[in-house]
Specification:
With 202 residues, the chain is α+β, with helices and mostly antiparallel strands. It has two domains: 76 residues, no CATH class; 103 residues, PH-domain like (Roll), CATH 2.30.29. The protein is built from four helices and eight strands. The strands form two sheets. A four-stranded antiparallel β-sheet has the order 1-2-3-4, covered by helices on one side. β2 and β3 form a beta hairpin. It is elongated, with a radius of gyration of 21 Å.
């Protein structure tokens, strides 16, 4: 996870163009806009630029000159720089990720370094478009929120648990997915159409 974030940050620093992976034949992409998260990252980076010199001067005023003060200053500066690099890399991964891909038999979730996995469509019981006032998911160990930053606007209820990969090598088994996609009505409609075709086939 850390290697992916740092590699993405390096691509941003070298100004390499953002390229999303191609959509496989028979799949449809429902993107998850990262514009709101980009604004938050910019704000945090500005705060870091303001905070780092202020803390540096404060440490100099409170601690006597010596090796300990130099170590503390170095640690604080290093942590600020690493956080800034991590934020830039995380945003880059979000911009490069596919978001949600809907295929004939599966739903592929690819949200940067936050979450990825495959959900069989036969496991989906219902697809519900969430109104803004009801978008906040409940605290449920069997559910997961998959959004860049915005409140989720779609909810998938599953018949059986699926395993999704989370940051830092963690995994979660869930029976409900609260998603944010750019076209929630089209996404919910596509899921329902798949169910209708499956019922007709059987």
């Amino acid at each position: 996870m850390e290697a992916r974030v740092l590699g993405a940050a390096l691509r941003s620093f070298t100004r390499r163009p953002i390229r999303q992976s191609d959509v496989p034949p028979g799949w449809r992409r429902f993107g998850a806009s990262s514009a709101s998260y980009a604004n938050v990252v910019v704000m945090l980076l500005v705060l870091l630029l303001i905070e780092a010199p202020a803390v540096h001067m404060l440490v100099g005023a409170l601690m006597e000159d010596g090796a300990l003060r130099a170590v503390v200053r170095g640690l604080l500066l290093g942590s600020s720089v690493y956080l800034a690099v991590w934020l830039i890399g995380d945003l880059r991964l979000l911009r490069e990720s596919s978001g949600v891909l809907l295929g004939e038999n599966g739903l592929s979730v690819q949200l940067g370094g936050r979450c990825h996995g495959l959900v069989p469509l036969e496991s989906v019981v219902s697809a519900q478009q969430l109104a803004e006032q009801s978008a906040a998911p409940g605290a449920d160990a069997d559910s997961i929120r998959i959004t860049p930053l915005q409140p989720p606007n779609c909810r998938l209820t599953l018949r059986s648990p699926v395993t999704l990969q989370l940051p830092f090598g963690l995994a979660a088994q869930v029976t409900r997915l609260d998603l944010f996609v750019d076209e929630p009505s089209a996404f919910s409609c596509a899921i329902r159409m798949h169910h209708s075709r499956a019922l007709t086939t059987h």
